[in-house]
Design goal:
324 residues; 13 helices
Length: 324
């Protein structure tokens, strides 16, 4: 007599979250920052759902449950932007589960995204940016040559903070006057290296070699990282590269910006916005800006047209006699 096979136990919500994060890591090459954000949002929802829908299976979760969960986020004082991020993560998770056959449909697709106010980023003017980048010295920077090169690449090439810190020495193509940038999802693109940025890099690289030689007793210590930290921490450890962190870059940019009279809310991404905005103001084609910034969708790049239009409207309202 054949024994009756035991029914298959459906995976728990925690297992499904772990499976989705594993897919993001191995198939999409998601960054550590993206993984942390998705894990935070999905673990929070899974814990809530386990208490309100039971652990019998994810198929018990309806769109009404997700709406209630968003309401609890508002009750905790979270903003609409935070709720929208949580919903985006839940939608993506359900989409993956539907494709994998864990659920019949994407319940999160029936939940409307909270309407967000359009906050256009405040961008320094061309004159302000030139003044800041040209005045990086000892009073504003712990390593002026390195920190000026950082500003030149963030503003002169429009790259992201994580893209900057991920650069290696062999990503600089001097003959082609370009750098190889690894963007989101491990996508690669080449970005032109302007004369000012190239000169700043050469100055920094000479000092970088001297510092590495000093700790290597005359021989240049090996590290592929383009930008290294001031004290070369971690270089002597196995696998250590002394690579500068995104947090350190944020502190460097903010300190220089504040000491040069810019707003205290300036951060590395502000320089990326300035790059796109100033290109557009000077007549660059929107699709060319899209390629330079590595935007997947043109709609993301079009935010810069909104910003420029807002600036023009401000000028019009302030100067035209019929606008007063």
């Amino acid at each position: 007599m054949n024994a009756t096979a035991a029914p298959a136990v459906p995976p728990s919500l925690g297992d499904l979250v772990a499976g989705y994060l594993h897919m993001l890591t191995n198939e999409r090459g998601a960054s550590a920052h993206t993984l942390r954000a998705y894990e935070r949002e999905l673990r929070g929802f899974a814990d809530w759902a386990a208490g309100h829908c039971g652990e019998a299976g994810v198929d018990r979760i309806e769109h009404t449950h997700i709406r209630v969960y968003l309401s609890t986020l508002y009750d905790r004082g979270l903003s609409k932007a935070s709720a929208a991020r949580a919903l985006a993560a839940i939608r993506s998770w359900f989409k993956w589960m539907a494709r994998a056959g864990y659920v019949e449909r994407n319940a999160a697709a029936l939940v409307a995204t909270p309407k967000l106010p359009k906050h256009l980023p405040r961008v320094p003017s061309i004159e302000q940016m030139n003044r800041v980048v040209d005045s990086v010295d000892e009073d504003a920077a712990s390593w002026p040559a390195r920190d000026r090169a950082i500003l030149e690449l963030l503003y002169g090439c429009g790259i992201r903070n994580a893209e900057l810190t991920g650069l290696n020495l062999n990503d600089i193509y001097w003959a082609n006057e370009a750098i190889l940038v690894r963007g989101k999802g491990q996508k690669q693109r080449y970005v032109p290296l302007g004369d000012a940025a190239a000169q700043a890099l050469r100055t920094y690289l000479a000092e970088r070699s001297a510092r590495l030689a000093a700790v290597g007793n005359g021989r240049v210590a090996a590290t592929p990282a383009l930008f290294v930290n001031l004290r070369l921490r971690g270089l002597g450890k196995p696998g250590g590269q002394a690579r500068l962190t995104t947090r350190s870059v944020g502190r460097i940019v903010k300190r220089i910006a504040i000491l040069r009279g810019l707003s205290a809310d300036v951060h590395p991404h502000t320089l990326r916005h300035a790059f796109g905005t100033h290109l557009l103001e000077e007549g660059a084609d929107l699709r060319a800006i899209q390629e330079l910034l590595g935007h997947e969708r043109l709609s993301t790049t079009q935010r810069y047209t909104q910003l420029t239009t807002a600036q023009l409207t401000e000028v019009y309202d302030r100067t035209h006699p019929r606008a007063k």
